[in-house]
UniProtKB/TrEMBL annotation:
Involved in the transposition of the insertion sequence. PANTHER family: TRANSPOSASE INSF FOR INSERTION SEQUENCE IS3B-RELATED, TRANSPOSASE INSO FOR INSERTION SEQUENCE ELEMENT IS911B-RELATED. Residues 131-305 form the Integrase catalytic domain. Gene3D superfamilies: Ribonuclease H-like superfamily/Ribonuclease H. InterPro entries: HTH-like_dom, Integrase_cat-core, RNaseH-like_sf, RNaseH_sf, Transpos_IS3, Transposase_IS3/IS150/IS904. This is DNA integrase. Pfam families: HTH_21, rve, rve_2. Signal peptide: none annotated. One of its GO terms (molecular function) is nucleic acid binding. GO terms for biological process: DNA integration.
Amino acid sequence: MAALCRREISQIIYDLRGKFILTDILKALRFPKATYMYWQKRFHRPDADKALEDRILAVHRQNPDYGYRRVTIALRDQGVLINKKHVQRLMRKLHIQAEGCAKRAIHLDSTTYHSYQGKVGIVCKNRLRRRFCTAICHQKVTTDTTELKYVVKLPNGQFQVKGVYLDAFLDMYNREIISYRISSQPSEGAILAALNDAVKVTADCPVRRTFHSDQGWVYQMAAYHQRLKQERIFQSMSRKGTCLDNAIMENFFSILKREMYYGRVYHSFARLKLAIQRYIHYYNYVRIKERLGWLSPVAYRQRHSGDVDLDEAKQD
């Protein structure tokens, strides 16, 4: 605020120069000449950051979840070489921030979907033991189910909350969602359909694959277990009640909900389903990640998947 006041005072002095002697004005206002000279040079100077601010606003409109680091990388991809601190300062000036950071969850009700129903089938050991990294594309895949909700208005004028269930399979190599299904209720058929897609997508893996999950009822099913066994895929499960054993999948669901779900209310299954589909496409093809060298998951796979180190993969 002090800097703003000095600028305003300097502008007043500048406007009065034609009527009064500069030294008299400065003396009457007890205003430092050096400060006046500093601001005088800037009165008719074009805003050097105006074009840059326009670019930042354009990036923010296309990627509202981007913070200053991702905005900096997006600008560099456009050929604009700029320091991230400069971008951070301009974003503060423009009063913009990553939308995901500003949103709060709208709690439609207090229930949460839990797929664990005790030991109802085959429980496998935890082969991954939180070793989520791999140098081999499609070697390690994880899956889980999450619930999102929408609100419908009933004929009697009341509102009803309904659930949408996303079954997703994620490649740990580049965090890409390689298959998924969206359904109106937890479904064995949806999981098996997504599993079949994931098996086909990862068939090019040069080493034996591992598919990880929690101990949810659907992953204990004989049909799920036999499908993996048929393809000679290792089945791995988190320990009971240990969500950190599948932290990589939990992280994706957290990102998805923060960036396209929290702070919004959807009013039909179709609208929420479409929003999820669009977000997964955006996440795979557009959303850049620092751990991937500021590339999207698909761009990272296309650039690096040929750099296969089989010895390292066997150690993992």
